[in-house]
Amino acid sequence: MKNLVPKSGRVSILITNYNYEKYLREAIDSALAQKYPDIEVIVVDDGSTDRSRNVIQSYGERIRAVYQENGGQSKAFNSGFEASTGEFIFFLDADDVFSQEKVYQVVKLFEQEPEIGFVFHAVEKFNSSSGLVEGRTPLQIEGIVNEKKSLRHRGKPKIFLPPTSAFCFRRDCLNKIFPMPESSGIGISDKYLGILALSISSGYYSNKMYARLRLHGSNLYSGEGRNYSKIYSIGLETAVRIFERDQTLWKYSVKLLARAEATRMAHLLSEDGHACGKPDFLNKLTRYRKFYYYCYIFPLYLKRKLRFS
């Protein structure tokens, strides 16, 4: 493949890491291997206690390293974005990998569609132990999307929101979102970044799989590493923060609150702790909690916010 001669400029690849020494080198190597002439790779280490720093230091000046005390994903995103200089910002989780042609292909989409603020794409899921492919996250559509009205009228996008490693943005789009809110002890999910991008800009959805998502025992939202208490706390915090940032997204915030509460209830009511894996049960609980939030809790919160704003 011939290198693309960019009309627009540099791509910053932002890798955030916390105790993923085991996978970090593969993520960095996949970023450095891109077939694009002007990239910078920024690795933010969020206070890791393993040997991640040794891995990062082994790359010398080939990457830009940012070290900070443990402050969560939002703080790591803020630090990385502040350190970046690219016109385009691509996010990569430290346990995932990019395909070699990702930057080349995505920049072409940005140049073909100058009005879009982001590109989201499908990802391939693979088992870390066996290396076998276990599925993919489809995006249901190929082309330009505009979810501004849908988010505000329906309270949810019509399309699937991919994981962090499928997030690609123009800097101008992220300038309207950053800095992200930082909360001591409680994080917010990447939904904050994805939903706000959908709410302010049109974008492009690609069904091409330009990244591989690693499934292992420490994944927060899947497998043995699933932590329901943390998922609940992150869901609540993300819902509130999205509402605080843009009150016209209150319907989405209600649904996110309901989903977080339903996840917690499903886990508590399950004898074996796996009720969250039963879609019918979880969906019924979500509808119940959504009704509760619509009719009681969120209107009170909304009135209180407006009274003291």
Compact overview of the structure:
By secondary structure, the chain is of the alpha/beta class. Helices cover 42% and strands 20% of the residues.
Describe this structure in words.
The chain has 309 residues and is an alpha/beta fold. The chain is built from 10 helices and 10 strands. A hairpin with a 5-residue loop joins strand 6 (118-127) and strand 7 (133-137). The radius of gyration is 19 Å and the shape is globular. The N and C termini lie far apart (55 Å).
CATH fold-level label of the largest domain = Spore Coat Polysaccharide Biosynthesis Protein SpsA, Chain A
Estimate the helix proportion, in percent: 40-55%
Residue stretches low in confidence (pLDDT < 50, at least 5 long) are 271-277
How many whole angstroms does the radius of gyration measure?
A: 19 Å
- Report the biggest beta sheet as strand number plus sense, adding barrel if it closes: 10 strands, mixed
Quickly count the domains.
Answer: 2
Number of helical regions: 10
* CATH architecture designation of the largest domain: Alpha-Beta Complex
- Terminal CA distance reads 55 Å
User: By helix and strand content, what is the structural category?
Assistant: alpha/beta
Main CATH class of the largest domain: Alpha Beta
CATH superfamily of the largest domain: Spore Coat Polysaccharide Biosynthesis Protein SpsA, Chain A
Q: What general outline do the C-alpha atoms trace?
A: globular
> Using DSSP, what is the number of strands?
10
Strand fraction: 15-25%
Order of helices and strands: EHEHEHEEHEEEHEHHEHHH
